Amino acid sequence: MMAEVRQLRGKQPDNEKITINLGFVDLGRIDLLVQEGFYSNRSDFIRTAIRKQLDTHGEAVDRSIERHTMELGLRDFGRTELEQLRAAGEVLHIKVVGLARIGSDVTPDLARATIGSITVLGSLQASADIKKALADRIL
Asked: What Pfam families would the database entry show (predicted)?
């Protein structure tokens, strides 16, 4: 006898619905563009605007993706690298499988200013002061 097979979950949607609040003037301007045939509807305009913004910030998104990728092996984080991140206004999310070392030349203030989170599958080597300063960010 053949067992009955049931699908437990339906297919995941290709998109997700969001809600935004717009002022009446902005909404009217969008409706005017739709009426003039520039866009098929409000959603088409909003999707196009979002894609344009994502393209504008594409390089920053790519850099962020690189920073959030897990690294395998030994990874050292020194004062020079962290100072460059601070100068650029960037926050580092450390993800290492292996050994992550935070250099002895890194101050607790610099570490707090530049390291948003630390995930290490293996071992983290850092001074007691650094570990204390980042205690709430070590996952």
From this structure: RHH_8 (PF17723)
| Whether residue 78 sits in one domain with residue 127 | yes
Looking at the structure, tell me whether residues 86 and 118 fall in a common domain: yes
Residues of the domain holding 117? 69-134
Looking at 58, 78, 107, the residue that finishes a domain is 58
Per-residue pLDDT, 5: 56
Those residues of the chain that have pLDDT short of 70 are 1-15, 65-68
pTM score of the predicted model:
0.55
Total number of domains constituting the chain: 2
Write the DSSP string, the chain: -PPP---SSPPPPSS--------HHHHHHHHHHHHTTSSSSHHHHHHHHHHHHHHHTHHHHHHHHHHTS-EEEEEEE-HHHHHHHHHHT--EEEEEEEEEEE-TT--HHHHHHHEEEEEEEEEEE--HHHHHHTGGGB-
Per-residue model confidence (pLDDT) at position 8: 54
